[in-house]
Amino acid sequence: MEGLSKAVLLAAHCWEDVDRVPGRPEMTAFRRRVRHRQARWRERNGLPMGTQPIAPKPGEDPRPLGSRLPLDLAGRSGANFLIPTARAAVDDRLAQPEPHQTLSTQRLWADLLSSMPMCFNLFGDLAQEPAAATAAIHAWWPDVPGGVDCVAFEHSPGRLDADYLGNRSAFDVAFLLDLGSSRGVLGIETKYHERTGSEKTPSDARLARYREVSERSGAFRPDALEDLIGTDLQQIWLDHLLVLSMIQHPSERWAWGRFVLVHPAENLDFADACRRYGELLVGEQNTFASATIESLLAVDGALPLATARAFRDRYLTDEGEGS
């Protein structure tokens, strides 16, 4: 797809150096396109433009940014959320903070491009409807056992808890499953505008725990960790390990788990990263999967038709393409 011109992006206050991905022109074009897409959605809905930074400090000179909303307005109106159920899920989550959480409410309310509010928009209809959530995940992943009894956003079973990973890893949304005498978890990470990049190598103490969970799981090919540590696949690995650590927890509470990374088909970085990550796993494992947002929306009945249409129009469709 042809990239947007600099003039078009400047006019929309969407020309941002951070969107450039050296050596990957397709990703640069994608990141610029979806930023502009959010700015145009904002304009179509009559919403004012926000700034960088989102909340300027005294004496700081902010600049306009087309993919943002003014923070005060965004917090009052919930304009970043497409459906009332998404806004309700946000309010519920903020009313129930988890220990040691890292949750940016500024991005949640005011950043149109952030994948955090996008996750609430995609799965918010399921938050208070266990039967609908169960039907949806079985439509998307028929082999998931049991039924959903809780949908938890920005969730970790225990941040900084050494019986899990001892870090702050969390799922964007977790579908907690009732398996009768035990529990299961379908943990999901959502991506939108993000790119991949090499990560800082963890400390020796944390790395020892990550190796332990990896080796006990039996999910990885021999020597796979050498292709994960400090690479652009490390964050996927750590999110996957959170599920695996739950299955291995001393309480034996968790009998089944899977980590799923969900991204737009246009995001070639994460499409490629998921493919490469999958190649490092043994063939029979079922604790990791990836899916495009488009594939989830294409499953009839998984989400309300109006939600799927509104989501496509905002996040996946440029003007003139139709929905």
Written account of the structure:
Residues 41-67 are annotated as: Disordered. Residues 28-316 form the PD-(D/E)XK nuclease-like domain. This is PD-(D/E)XK nuclease-like domain-containing protein. This protein has 323 residues and is an alpha/beta fold. It has one domain. Helix content is 39%, strand content 14%. The chain contains twelve helices and seven strands. It has helices at 6-11, 25-44, 71-77, 84-94, 105-110, 115-123, 130-140, 204-217, 234-247, 268-278, 293-297, 305-316; strands spanning 50-52, 63-65, 147-155, 171-178, 183-190, 254-263, 288-292. Strands 3-4-5-6-7 form a five-stranded mixed β-sheet. A two-stranded antiparallel ribbon has the order 1-2. Helix 4 crosses helix 6 (115-123) and helix 8 (204-217) packs across helix 9. The longest helix has 20 residues, at 25-44. The protein starts with 5 loop residues before the first helix and ends in a 7-residue tail after the last helix. The model has no long low-confidence stretch (mean pLDDT 97).
